[in-house]
Amino acid sequence: MQYPRLKVFILASFISGLISFPQNIIGCGPMMDPYDYFTSFYSKALVDIGPSKPYFYTNLLTFYDDWDYTEDSTAFINDALIAEWQTYVPGASKKDVVDFVYNRSVNEVKQLQAAMRQPAATIAPALKRNSMAMQLLQQKKTEAVQYLLLAKAVEPICVSPDPWSDGPKRDSAGINQYINQATAAWQKTTDAFLKNKYAFLRCKLAFYNNRFNDCTRWYAEGFDDNNTTAVKTMALSYSAGAQFKTGKGKEAAYAFSKTFAQTAPKHRKAVFLGFLWATDQCNISLLNSYCSVARTPKEQAMMAAMFGLWGYDYHLPVIEKVYQLDPQCELLPLLVLREINKVEERFLTPMLDKQPGSKAFYYSWNEKDTAALSDTHVQDLIALLEKMGSNPPTNHQSAFATATAYLHYMRKDVTAANNWLAKAKAMPASNAVKDQQQMVGLLIQTASLQAMNSSNENALLPQLKWLQQQAEQSAEFGMFYRNLMAQVIAPAYYQQGDLYKTVLAYGLADKALKPDSSGYTYYGYTANAIEFLQNKLNTPDIIALYDYLNNTPATAYDAFLMSNNSVTKDAVTDMLGTTYLREFDFAKAIDWLKKQHKPSLLTSEQYNYKTYKTTLLNVNPFHDYLNDWQRYEKPLAKPMSKLAFAEKMLRLQQAIDTASSNAVKSKLYYQLANGLYNMSYYGNSWMLMAYNRPNSNWNSGKYDAAWEKEYYAVHTAKNYYLKAYELSPDKEFKAAAYFLAAKCAQRQIARPDYDWNNYDAYEANMKVFLRKFANNAMFANFKKEFGSTKFYQFAYTRCSYLRDFAVRSK
Amino acid sequence: MLSCSTHDAPTVHRGFYYWKSRFALDSTERNALQRLRTEKLYIKLFDVAWDEPTHQPLPVAKINFAAAFPTQQQYVPVVFITNETLQKATPKDIDNLGRNIPKLISSITENNKLPMPAEIQLDCDWTASTKDRYFLLLKQLRKTSFFQGKRLSVTIRLHQVKYTQEAGIPPADRGLLMCYNMGNLQQPATQNSIIDPATLKQYTSRLNEYPLPLDIALPIFSWWVWFEGNQYKGLIHAHALQLPLDAEKKWRCSRDTTINGYTFKQGDWLRYESSPQESIEQVISHLQSQLKPDNRNIILYHLDAKSLQQYAIPTLESFYTRFLH
Lengths: 810, 325
Description:
The complex is a heterodimer of chains A (about 800) and B (about 325). Helix content of chain A is about 60%, strand content about 5%.
């Protein structure tokens, strides 16, 4: 099978269009969620989910249920087969027929046979309790028991050998003996029911003995067109397999497709696998020639539809062909669902992603697709669905008409979308289709709004509340709700400059998914409103957000926006406090941080790789240390809050103005410098300025925001250490202050970013950086001025850069 | 087993490959094992090939043990994987192979009462485009319980030892340098594709820099290479035909004929290729000049009566002992 080269990445598309990887990326994990990697608003409940699930569309798995497949313990039961036995053995309950046919052993059936000959013979208690066993005995169905003995005796050999096992070799001669028995019985019996059973057994045994031509021939001999028994379908599947094994792909595919149509949905996946092999992985180039062997339009339609249940390419011609041949084909809604999902993946998702302010979870593109190509396909699909939604009437007309409306919405044709939705609503529809109509209606309503003003917000509210209620009960509608808020509503606010409402729309998206019945919450890809708040809003916008949240909701819509939202007032006040901390404006930081109900604390999770335990450390933002690896030493007994830190920094600043001597001032500057250094990327309290600290960062000399300059290049910390050095009369203290200033100076040497396009240039720049880094510009003076101090010795034994420098300069 | 002592003289561990699909030693083969004091038998258990109809890798050519494994030799299972398998395998296929290969090796070992191996070998002529998948498979295999505590060796072909940048270094414990099949078999102009010292030298000038410790495999087989004009047609077992050779070691068919079941047309010709003693000695001499003294497995390909009969036992003995100097 030729998979299209589809590259799928997850990213959060920031407003600036800058593409980066958010913390919730599964880039380091096994793979993305195959069920939630493109924007969708089209419910899978429009088809019968259970049997259709393997064939739902996803680009990331072979079968849709590969990932979360759970075996149903009763899935093996062939209900039609059991029903036929019940008819043949009146008085046998379904439960007992299942037990007897599937679970009773050869020996137990032999007991039954013996009891038929000698009524006094012993029968196992399990058999005595089994109504099928007792009815067979009572009704003296000796031939049936004879058949069941043979059927159970051959079960162990009727398995395809595991190619990866060195098991016992097939006993061909032994199997042939069984075949002879089955053939003799088939020829002899006058019982129509058992004749079919023996006919099936012959086919089955022939298949497992690699007598493929016999298998096919005996199927034709044993079953005519009027035969509708369960074993006929089972024998047909063996005949199909036999034809595949003998290189007759076309005939095998036809047989598999007939088997598929006759098989209960829960057993179809294995049949489909055979079809897949027989058609070279549903190779579309084979479709017309393969379908030509089918005898009726209905059969041709089923074959064509099965070709369409596979692959990642658009399959419009397949749907068209199926519809022409059999408008009532049961697979049509599934084919349409798959096609809509492909359009959502390749047309809708990229379109929504590109909107300014869109908080997409993922970005996918196919090298073969361009927007124009996808749009052409959407138009063609619309044309086909318009036909399918009109004439001739089908069972699924309303669903097709609803899909048409949805596609018109995607192409931003609100008029056509509304027209088709109205048509769809006038047709009989299931509850699932009606829910889909309401979802599409909501989307169309959002598309027809010129602005998200108060009037339009309130007009939307009833539908938004409906969707929120649906999300409470359905994980799928939870995703629709999330997608709507993050990719339709939030961008609308963003584009009209209402950034605080953009954040709140994302906040609703974050809370869209609910725990399931077991309490498990699937988070999927979150909009991450808090991250947007922290990174993309400027201070006036954050203040506007605070004011909005702090006031009583003016309208029902305001109340809706504020409730069940991931954005809390505390998060906003923390952000405002942090904004001012970043500017070292401790007074204003205090004003905001005081408003928090639950203060933000300075703690750090420390993972011990030896004990596998994580502990929460109360960092000391004023801890005085030489080497950065000592930053977490001497933690506080109780955590300090951001507010307490800001208050202490303000006190230190104010104390400088009233300090009694330079000695006192120097110590105040030194403490301030320690606090500032610990606020930086290199310190233990970086969470005072940042919300995320990747381990591999360093000062690159380039900053996305103004505050990052201090965060990475610690200019003010260095200046304060130098002030401490200048003011102090104590040489040892001066030495310490000077050394720490030198440490800051080293952080100011910009490290080059990795250059993916020019490694040679990167390598050359790195050499320059490393040379500068190892030769601190301040070390010469440090050695000259403080070489005789105790502190120099202390630093010498602990700082390899100083040591190397000292050795080189001897 | 193979210690890395720098003070003791290097040890040569003698081995043979067994590459037939049915394991049963005849007297010639048993005699050779005994007289040569062979320590190890590298047995190819199965191939892994790509099954196009079902689009998955499957084991083929599984060995059938028709006789007991000799008690004096150590058993080293070998699995050959086609490069096509790696080219077409999906990540899921690689994952499954990582489980299925040890499962089948274990199953064959247990069912045939073979001793638990201390070493397992993978044989694959991987390329730059399949390197990542192959190396991933090797890593997956090493994680399995069956492979834990066992040495993993992999065959290395001459182009892989020369072009290490493209080929990469496989994540294995040891490499087995295949010093045969070094020429272009299907080229009419080739004189001997099995072994050619000059060709070997072109590929092995920096052998001592190869990061994996290397064992050596040497050929003792021969065959006929069949051409129809300039078109390669196939291989024929050396012992299947007794034909007169010209000075170029070729037999030319002057008229349509059938010999021992093979039908040749006028214009067909056969090139006889073998593993001459002199060529093997030159190869050993060159390898000795390139490799640091070390304990090594020296393996002859392959244990087959007809091949063995082309050499005297002392000659075969010398192929091992030359590595001791």
